[in-house]
Each structure stands twice: as structure tokens, then as C-alpha cells.
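UDP-glycosyltransferases domain-containing protein
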Amino acid sequence: MESKDQKKLHIAMFPWLAYGHLMPFLEVSKFLAQKGHQISFISTPKNINLLRSSSFSPLINFVELPLPAVDGLPESIESTSELPINKVPYLKKAYDLLKPSVTHFIQHSSVNWVVHDIICYWMPRVATQLGVNSVYFNITNASTLAFFGPPSELLGDKRRRPEDFTVVPEWVDYPSNVAFKQHEMVSHWDCMDDEVSDFQRLAGSIQDCNFVTMRSCTEFESDAVSLLRKIYGKPVVPLGLLPPGSAPHQHGVANDRGDDKWEVLRKWLENKKPNSVVYIALGTEVTLSQELMHELARGIEKSGLPFIWVVNNRPLVEGVLGSDIIPLGFETWV
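Structure:
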């Protein structure tokens, strides 16, 4: 008889419509699929078409749900990368309108667990009503979650202005200087839905799920992980930092190009001294001018250290592709 630990599950993955969220969810999906679990990755058609080329497609069932139309959201837009920040609230409204179709899929597909993102604060309650377990997967680290605090603080009245988030909160019980700059929070205010704030979304995602996970590990953030377990009053499970998977030819599936890249990069890193490599990445949607990119390049060069600099090959604010704005003399690897 199969032990409880060996039971194969049907797990639905439902990430937010941003590449910085879609890709970590995909990495977790790959890992779980390689363990033999049935994975249903739920998103919109355009996002799924982009993900299929970098995934173990035979191991993952991609579920396409058309994004409902919302006044203010341009037609055919399905991710934050296609929008200015002040238009993102309309994408959140459209995402919330996926609730009926997601609910229908979970209800009629024998799903055991659903792994959800911050924006769909309604998902844990839907899962509970359907007798399904839910996991909130936070794509950032434990320190970020610790800074925002328990659901009671997220729903309270103490922090309602951008400047309220520029100081370390009182519940952080270990030495920390983690806090936002005011301009960072002012910018974030522009992307929040005026009907349901991101703080309300985070609170709902945490308080109604079975347990919380994040991209971190106890070796890196032991204090923050311990604090989260205390203030949430439920299991908190770090998943690690989620580098690209590197398990080739499992279940008869050839390794994809992204994993081949990681193998080469891993071997290069293994030849470097510990703590000697600088990693520079500005995220999937940050855009810099050519002048700022060159300034950053000069700083990297002056450090004299081996480095990995991730540059997105997409139009920047000056309309130049990322591969064209790197100064001469830098070796590029696509």
C-alpha cells in the first residue's frame, strides 16, 4: 500500500500575471512534476504560449483561461510587462474576474491542492469551500513578508500612507534595517486597485490558506522565517531560492534550453571562489535609459570582480533592445 508521503497529488498552480511571478511558479511546477505529481498550470493564453517553450510540457498540463475584458485595460493585454504601472489596477480587476472559471476548473478536475499568488486573495476561501487545500506561495523572500507583518496589521489603520512603510515595524524582533524608501511606496500606490488594496490581498492570501511558502531558506533568513511562523500561527515552509532546474531526461523528457544554460553557468560558478561573484539583475520589468545602463556598466567594471549581469532583451525607455545598449567590451551570452 502506498504510504502517505508517496501519494501522488493533483496540484493546481495559479500565479499572478507578471513574469516575475509566472517563472518561479513554473520552476516549482517542474520540481513537483518531476516527483510524479499531476500539475495543472492555470493562466491566460498569451502567458502560457510564452511559458511552453521553456517548460517540461509533457509533465505539465497548461490550462488556458481567457482574461475577461475590463474597461480601462487595453485589448489583448495579459501581463504587467505590457502596461504602464498606472494601468496595472485594471489588470488586477480582470484577474479577479477569473474567479468563476478557476473555481469551475478546480471543482471539476479532482484537484487536491492549489498553489496561489498574492493577488487572488479570494482563492483560499474558494479552495476551502471546495474541500481543497491551499498554499500561498510568495515569490519574494521571508524578510519582505516579515516587514509587512501579520494579517491584522495589513488590515489595520496604523500604516495607510507611503511614509508609514519607511521604518522598521515594531513586530520585527531581530536586528533589521529592512524598510522601503518613500518613493518606492509612492510608486507602488499607483499600481494598487482602489477597491481592494494589495495589503488586503496579502492579508487574505495569508490568513485563509493552509500554509505559506516563499523563495528563501532558513540558512539565509532564519530570524525572518521564525518570526513568520510566530505571527502567522501556521506552517511556514521556505522553498529555497529556486534556480533553474537542472535534472535532464527525466520521465523521457529531454532537457530544455534554459536548463542547458544553467548547467554551463553552474560550472562557471563552481570555478570561482566563494562569495566572489557579483550578481546584477533589475527584475523582469525595470527599464533604464542607455545612459543609466552605461553608468551601471562602468561601476560593474570598476569593481574588478567576476559578475553575472542579467539584461532583458526587450525595448527599454529609449526604444533600444537590451542587447544593443551594453557597452563594447562586455561579453554577452544569450
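The longest strand covers residues 38-43.
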